[in-house]
Amino acid sequence: MSKKNLICWLLIFISFMLFSAAGCGGKETTAPGAKENIKVGFSISLTGIYAPAAESQMRAYDLWLEQVNERGGIYLEEYGKKLPVKFVYYDDQSSTDMATRIYEKLVTEDKVDMLLPPWGTTLHFAIAPLTEKFQMPVVGNTACSIKIRELDAKYFWFITSCIPDRQTEALVDLMKEHKNQLKTVAITYVQDLFPRENLEFLEPYLKAAGFEVVLVKDYPIGVSDLSSLMAEIKRLNPDAYLALSYPEDSFLITNQAIEAGLNPKLFLLLVGPSIAAYDAGYGAATEGILTQGHWSPKRGWAGAQEFYDGFVKKYGERPDYLDSVLAYVSCEILEQSLTMAGSLDKEAVRDVIATSVFETINGPIEFTGVENMRMPAMWLQWQQGELEIVWPAETATAKLLIPKPKW
Amino acid sequence: MHMNYIKTAVIAVLLLVLFLIPQIATTYTTSVALNILMWIGMATSWLILAGFTGYISLGHGAFLGIGAYFVASYWQILPLPILILLSGIVCVFVAAIVGYPVLRVKGPYFVILTLGLSEFVKYSLIYYEVNIRGTVGRILLKTPSIEDLYYWILVICLLSIATAYLIKRSRFGLALMSVKDDEEVAEALGVNAALVKWKAFAISAFFPGMIGAVMAMRWTYIDPYTVFNPMMSFQVTIMAFLGGIAYLHGPIIGATMLTLLSQYLWARYPNFYMFALGVILIFVVMFLPQGLAGLISNMKLPVLLNKYKVENKSLTKEK
Fold it and tell me: Which residue of B has its CA nearest to A129?
């Protein structure tokens, strides 16, 4: 027993020595006073339930980092020169507990100059009170909920216009244009915050506009079979089927709707069809699928096509029209606001973000409170292998294809 | 006598340091310390059922979730101390209700049942949120500072250790440990096994309920998927085993070591630390079946802990 114990202690000692040696090597050796780079910190879900989704965000961050440093960094008047950007990030394991600790570390220990947000609504909400407390401005990207207005934040903003009340209103407006073809509607939703909030507004809007809602049904996250639900919808034969879904179940619904031969005139899958794996998996079958989003490289926003090409070149597949675009826009706003403020002073940067108009790959962006009210809520549709903006008319790149062709 | 003085002095210094941390340390150090205390509280309260009776529960995290949701539901309606206390009491009631049938099941069936039970609580809550409240997740505004939360967690953590200590020294504790050694024999000797297990389960649920209440204020946004994450329960179990479940200080050492270690690893090797943690856990299970506490206890050097060793050996040796 004692020999074994000795081995144990020896191993513990050796590993401790190794760790501390590695730790020393990693320390920074920047002379005080001489600012050599701009440190941008964030947490990312490398592991855990958000990990598959967070990749499209991380890739956009990395692409921007590469591009901004190729340009020589960000120009700051305060220093009279361009400073390169350096990322400091940690894995939050998709946990709110970890994310809060990481942002505390980033601000108080690593002393980063600026912050980028983690992935998803939950983690955005978890860190918002902290960034508020530290008075660190953060432009949120992959988060969306009507609860953002509850936050009452001065240092936090949300880019997306996919806010449930705004986007469902736009959807019903779109449907009203085709009311001669659309009378009955079936809705399904996955049991989580964002889909549930969409339902909250969608159902009354539809009823007020005179549509007949023939089915509203929910199912849990991680569901593995929806074939009986597809059969039921087929039996009801609605003109429009609106699936308030997440990527995982968007794939499941597509598979099982094809199997069931479910062919409504309007087919919506809320989140999922904008990611690259969707059209890679279904090809021509995507024709006519409607989904949420507010971006297309064809719209002609400055830098949009370059972003698309740069992303494809670096990663070998197209960006997610939602998360990758939003994450990249966050970085663009960060970059522009620093240059406009001319310094790394948090208050100055905050004021710039709160009051300026930013030209991004997703068009002009301007915040009213925490929300980007400059961008209207839009809807995308798959048409001949490309996602087109089909609503509203002023930003559309194509007209709505209706009825959706059969599978 | 001399040894007792040293022990008391060490504990007193430790307590003083713990008490002073928010005053002297940075916010980040306080947050790390808060995290360690939270896991110590979780693992020690877990020990009251699992360590003493041998009924390994994989549902301990569910009580944390219930406490968190209770606070979120009555946030800014009830005063803070009452809110925290009630969160614990609610969990005691929940444990008493579910524990009655559940504790009749033994061995691996019990382990699986507790896991299923926490998933059941999670999905019931999701159903309630989605279909009745019409939303999922809650935001807590105007939460107390991290320093205040730290003191709450410190008090709850110390309470859980004191409770476990007192139970271990009591007749009730002996009854629990007799259940662990041989439930049938214990019954034959007049121990009401069903009753003592039931009591232990209810008591052990009190602390995670209160911890959940405090942590909800720290996380400020909670939804069922994050507060009822089964990884919470697994982590509690892993910490207790790492420290050694035959010892009262086992979960304390386990929780401290694992939290510090993972802290150290994720901060330096963001892409590698899960792998390293896995290797360490395999190592512990293979070479340290009695946990870190067992390793310390087996050494001849720390005279300080010899007394513990004798106590524990006498209780666990004759299995």
Answer: B220
Q: Does B272 touch chain A (CB under 8 A)?
A: no
Residues of B in contact with A23 (CB under 8 A): 264, 268
Nearest to B141 by CA among B225, B221, B74, B31: B221
Return the CATH fold of A164-292+378-395.
Rossmann fold (3.40.50)
Domain A38-161+300-372, CATH? 3.40.50.2300
For residue B16, the enclosing domain spans 2-226
Q: For residues B65 and B151, what is the distance between their CA atoms, to the nearest angstrom? A: 20
Number of domain units in chain B: 1
Question: CA of B223, closest CA in chain A: separation in Å?
Answer: 8
User: What is the residue-level pLDDT of chain B in tens, covering all 319 positions?
Assistant: 577 888 889 889 999 999 999 999 888 899 999 999 999 999 999 999 999 999 999 989 999 999 999 999 999 899 999 999 999 999 999 999 999 888 888 888 999 999 998 999 999 999 998 888 888 888 888 889 999 999 999 999 999 999 999 999 999 999 999 999 899 899 999 999 999 999 999 999 999 999 999 999 999 999 898 899 888 898 899 899 888 888 899 999 999 988 998 888 887 776 677 787 788 778 877 888 788 888 877 765 444 445 455 455 544 444 3
Please give the C-alpha separations between residue B132 and each of A196, A213, B124, in angstroms, as whole numbers.
11, 20, 11
SS3 B258: helix
> Which of A101, A151, A217 is most worth mutating to test chain B (most B CB atoms within 10 A of its CB)?
A101
The answer for residues whose C-beta is within 8 angstroms of residue A358's C-beta and 6 or more apart is A332, A333, A336, A337, A364, A365, A366
Inspect the interface and report whether the beta carbons of A101 and B32 lie closer than 8 Å. Answer: yes
Q: Which residue has the tokens 């069936």?
A: B109
What is the predicted ipTM?
0.83
Which part of chain A has CATH 3.40.50.2300? Answer: 38-161+300-372, 164-292+378-395
B-interface mutation test, from A9, A46, A102, A104, most B Cβ less than 10 A away: A104
Query: Does B128 lie at the interface with A, CB-CB under 8 angstroms?
Result: no
| A152 contacts in chain B (CB < 8 Å) | 141
Asked if A220's CB is within 8 angstroms of B123's CB, the reply is yes
